[in-house]
Amino acid sequence: MDPASTSPSPASCRRCGARLGSSGLGGLCPRCLLTDALPTESGPTPPPDSTPGGDSKPAIKPTPVLLRYFGDYELEGEIARGGMGVIHRARQLSLGRLVAIKLMSAGEFARPEVVQRFRTEAMAAAKLQHPNLVAIHEVGEHAGLQYFSMDLVEGPNLAAQLAGQPLPASVQIGDA
């Protein structure tokens, strides 16, 4: 038996961090493999850690052409990826405003308890009102995909801003 065929696959996707089963081809989850395979308006999507110049403003990656329109939203590009979803910059067509829209990563293949956790996160955040919190506009499902839309906040990514260190209480985001 070939030793290479029995070696364990990585525990998580090297791009988005999703848990990998036995199908982690090249260290990527099926979603990231599919994202790389889909055509985009400006070519292949670079890995998230390859932003040129190290700008403090996050790079917006073009959204694959096949996902250009999502219900009432025109997706302009990917802003970030998290444990449960991918956040896109989008234009809400009916109101003509820019928003951020979070699409659940697992999409239509998500287990019911994961869908419920995603919706609970959105509903809990929608109940909070504070000038320093992002407002949630809409929670829904379109074509089998769970999503919620929220205010678009321009500026540096909070995780990059913190760089693994706590933010001093006297410092405003963007000043550090």
Using brief descriptors, characterize the structure shown:
176 residues, alpha+beta, Phosphorylase Kinase, domain 1, 2 domains, six-stranded antiparallel beta sheet, 3 helices, 16% helix, 23% strand, globular
Characterization of the model:
Helix content is 16%, strand content 23%. It has two domains: 3-34, no CATH class; 56-161, Phosphorylase Kinase, domain 1 (2-Layer Sandwich). Strand 2 (73-81) and strand 3 (85-92) form a beta hairpin. It is α+β, with helices and mostly antiparallel strands. The protein has a six-stranded antiparallel sheet with strand order 1-2-3-4-6-5, with helices on one face. 18% of the residues are buried. It is globular and about 40 Å long.
Largest sheet: 6 strands, antiparallel
Provide the number of structural domains. Answer: 2
- Low-confidence residue ranges: 1-9, 37-56
Q: Care to count the β-strands?
A: 6
Based on the structure given, which CATH architecture of the largest domain is correct? 2-Layer Sandwich
Please give the count of helices: 3
Order of helices and strands: HEEEEHEEH
- Could you report the average pLDDT, rounded to the nearest whole number? 73
Spatial order of the strands in the main sheet?
Answer: 1-2-3-4-6-5
Pairing-aware structural class of the strands and helices? alpha+beta
CATH superfamily caption of the largest domain: Phosphorylase Kinase, domain 1
> Which range best describes the helical content: under 10%, 10-25%, 25-40%, 40-55%, 55-70% or over 70%?
10-25%
- Kindly, what is the distance between the CA atoms of the first and last residues, rounded to a whole number of angstroms? 55 Å
Globular, elongated, flat, extended or rod-shaped: what is the shape? globular
| Percentage of residues in strands | 15-25%
Given this structure, which CATH class of the largest domain is correct?
Alpha Beta
